[in-house]
Amino acid sequence: MTAASPRVRAAVVGAGGIATVAHLPTLKAHEDRVEVVAIADVDADRLGAVAEEWAIPGRYSDVDTMLAAERPDLLVLCTPPVAHKDGVIKGLKAGAWVWCEKPPVLTLAEYDEVAAHEGENGPFASYVFQHRFGSGAQQLKQQVRDHTLGRPLVAVCHTLWYRTHGYYEVPWRGRWATEGGGPAMGHGIHQMDLLFEILGDWTEVTAVADALDRDVETEDVSLATVRFANGAMASVVNSVLSPREVSYLRFDFQDATVEVEHLYGYDNSSWTWTPAPHRAEDGSAAGWTPQENVPSSHKQQLSELLDAMAAGVRPRASGDDGRRVLEFIAALYESSETGRTVRRAEMKPEGTYYTGMHDPSFVYGSAENTAASKETVQ
Fold first, then answer.
1. How far apart are CA 339 and CA 377, in angstroms?
2. Using CA atoms, how far apart are residues 359 and 335, in angstroms rounded to an integer?
3. pTM of the model as a whole
4. Per-residue pLDDT of the chain (378 residues; tens, 9 = 90+)
5. CATH number of 131-295
6. Three-state DSSP class for 215?
7. Strand order through the sheet with 152-162
8. Beta bridge pairs of residue 205
9. Backbone angles phi, psi at 206, to 5 degrees
10. Are 129 and 321 in contact (CB under 8 A)?
11. What is the rounded CA–CA span in Å between residue 180 and residue 63?
């Protein structure tokens, strides 16, 4: 997109915290390329206050009216997960590209339903997985592609966060029908997406999950072992019970260990490259760390999305590339609830874990189900 190109006309759905903390500042940061023409929310007072603060002219109580009146080029969805599917489809049918908060939708069936409304050359739906887009991740992905660190062998992916009991008093949180899952779906999804961005396709997962302390229908912690098509193995932990919060990924290659430790976003200072002894001695580790410092952010992802819109090509974190982590989460829940290893090649577009993330007969926090799952694994 050149400086002379008309600005993208964007509309926002949802005037809650994620809109004001992340998306509206991000859109403002790209005001040379984007014009926010409208916002919609069912809370009239909240809508008015946010529209005034961000000088947004169009103000609507429903998405349909806004889309018909404004005909935006880009629809930004900042709603609770239960509203994602319908919002994305409405945007696509109106001819808008869509950028939707995580998790993309509640089920794989919903994801595929959304994909059916995309055009061959757009509009496309893309999802917020901003951790892929920082310079540290991009440098490491290129090194894996170039085989400069040797084969990937072992990885660790931990999202150890803390959410109070009060956090789950919001009615849609911690419920299968409205959030689609617990910390695997709503919190660790970012780190897991970055894990797959670096290591590629996963092939099987064995997991356990349970509700240990929070009053939720879903899990509040999960642990998984994962195998990848390239032969690597990883451990994955997602928790909302961890007072010292950290987001941590570690990749052990033949020639180096690469780590990133942060909470909700990183820059180059969050990453370390540690060469194996034979690489430290020969001096060949020079140049492993990135030179440009681009933090992981909504801002960087939106920049790439705007480039894709201008070129008329599918953006990253979209289509099959956006589906992979959702597919993994479905398999994680299936494994934790059945006590079986779930192989990706055996997953089908049908059944309990395709149309949902959960077997309603399995109750998290139930001593009976926990004991049964342990017996199956043994």
1. 5
2. 11
3. 0.94
4. 444 579 999 999 999 999 999 999 999 999 999 999 999 999 999 999 999 999 999 999 999 999 999 999 999 999 999 999 999 999 999 999 999 999 999 999 999 999 999 999 999 999 999 999 999 999 999 999 999 999 999 999 999 999 999 999 999 999 999 999 999 999 999 999 999 999 999 999 999 999 999 999 999 999 999 999 999 999 999 999 999 999 999 999 999 999 999 999 999 999 999 999 998 877 677 788 999 999 999 999 999 999 999 999 999 999 999 999 999 999 999 999 999 999 999 999 999 999 999 999 999 997 555 554 444 433
5. 3.30.360.10
6. coil
7. 271-275, 256-262, 241-253, 152-162, 233-239, 221-228, 202-210, 342-343
8. 226, 342
9. -125, 125
10. no
11. 22
- Identity at 58, one-letter amino acid code: G
The residue type found at 129 is F
For the chain, which residues make up each domain, given as ranges?
A: 8-129+299-314, 131-295
At 197, the amino acid letter reads E
Fold of 8-129+299-314: Rossmann fold (3.40.50)
Percent of the chain that is helix, strand, coil (3-state, to 5) = 40, 25, 35
